[in-house]
Amino acid sequence: MISRRILAVTGILASGLVATLFGGAAQAQQVLKVGSTPTGIPFTFLDTKTNTIQGVMVDLVTEVGKDAGFQVQIEPMQFSALIAALTSNKIDLISAAMYISPARKEVIDFSEPVYSYGEGLVVPKTDTKEYKEFADLKGDTVGAQIGTVYVEPLKKTGLFPEVKIYDTIPDILRDVNTGRLQAGFADYPILAYNLKQGLFPGVRLVTSYKSTIVGSIGIGVRKSDKELLAKINTSLAKLQANGTVDKILAKWGLK
């Protein structure tokens, strides 16, 4: 009788140990690697005080994770490397200022849109002309960030002798600031935020310019991760309904 009780207790303890071990493994699998860029303020940027990536899309994916039941591990990388990193399983999600475009949707899936905007135009402050459209810059050398939706439309216009390609938006701003570039195109909110900080005193954001390439950004997901995408969209809907998304946007000056 005693032997049977000992065996029963041992079995229960063993089952509990196995459950604990496998439960721990399951929890570990809920940490998702999220690709974000160190430039792109206020959407994503490197906070030099904490040496961590911060911004709208970091706050957003963190809140989504809390609701959907996963933790996030932010992986810094260049914008042009994000999609390749996702499709090669180096990361699990993309949370950055990435437009939901038809070309990108052929390769990856996106959550429902979280914010919409268009491109902005920057020129040297000494250039006071009120540009309104691409055609007003005919003959100028212009710049755009590699991997963005602005590059091909600028090239296809045939208006510009050269469309310089830059790794980051701050690189564009630096060249405009020093006069090495006549005009630069990039995400309007990112340009506006950078200039508001007074980082590039020789640059002017052209307020008369009207955006022609308007799009929305969302969280990027592998095409094979349909269940994860559904969870993210469900959580996003909750966060939009309860005001969390608006609070995040307001925190970073986008509301």
From TrEMBL:
Domain Solute-binding protein family 3/N-terminal per the UniProt entry, residue ranges: 31-255
Superkingdom of this protein's organism: Bacteria
Leader sequence residues: 1-28
One Pfam family recorded for the sequence: SBP_bac_3
Keywords in alphabetical order: Signal
SUPFAM superfamilies: Periplasmic binding protein-like II
InterPro entries, per the entry: Solute-binding_3/MltF_N (IPR001638)
Protein's UniProt name: Polar amino acid transport system substrate-binding protein
